[in-house]
């Protein structure tokens, strides 16, 4: 099968499509003939040599896919060959085939395009596990999302609104903020032109902040919280270190958490995907939330896909079509 690995840490040009053995599904696994693979920030970090793979994970890129069940391993009764599915992976998605734990696989929601479904699993699992799980979201609360128009932002805005929340977002341009408004965001903050913390204080504060920036935002994130607010850090795009005023944190009765999805145990991922099935899939099938795919590239153009992803100019997901490898 054709699959993508990297020859050496660096830019998009280091990504190579090569011929590798097709995986075989083990007990409890299914083999998926991949239709689409979603791009994620962790893929870019992995390419640069700045992301350690979980123990035992393949060095083939890709954390989420959609496709068709090709085979089922021993002990799997929940899927059959021919089923259209989407799956959350530790790695291995930029390929024609991938073997994955059956508990991390869900049927493609009715009415969702098979290729576009590739952009659902990682963002849905991230928002559910961090906003609903770690963040303990309740309807009526305000969630601030840093990064309005990336995959997590675009999906998170819609999901939080659909489940009864109020959404504030930050972005660097008016065009990105308008896209966020169209998706349902209530509070739009251009972080280049205004202090997001001051704006959030004026808006009553955030109950939850979903933070992809990390260190440089720590102090202002605390300032932006409502009493009993929760900061959930899922990325470090701005750096790994920041200053924390414990007096301010204690006065807010607030908390700061940091989480990763990729290296969670198979059991934890199974629980998260069950929550995605319960909370997210019905909203997709009802049309209350939708996939937003900006560009689709053939697998053979993976370097171009990464180059565009790195510009941070996209709104929504970038997907590789793994059915086109030449």
TrEMBL record:
Organism: Arthrobacter ginsengisoli
SUPFAM superfamilies linked to this entry: GroES-like (SSF50129), NAD(P)-binding Rossmann-fold domains (SSF51735)
GO molecular function terms attached to this record: quinone reductase (NADPH) activity
Name of the featured protein: NADPH2:quinone reductase
Keyword Transferase carried by entry: no
CDD domains: p53_inducible_oxidoreductase
Keywords: NADP, Oxidoreductase
Enzyme Commission number(s) from the entry: 1.6.5.5
Highest classification ranks of the organism: Bacteria, Bacillati, Actinomycetota, Actinomycetes, Micrococcales
Domain Enoyl reductase (ER): 10-320
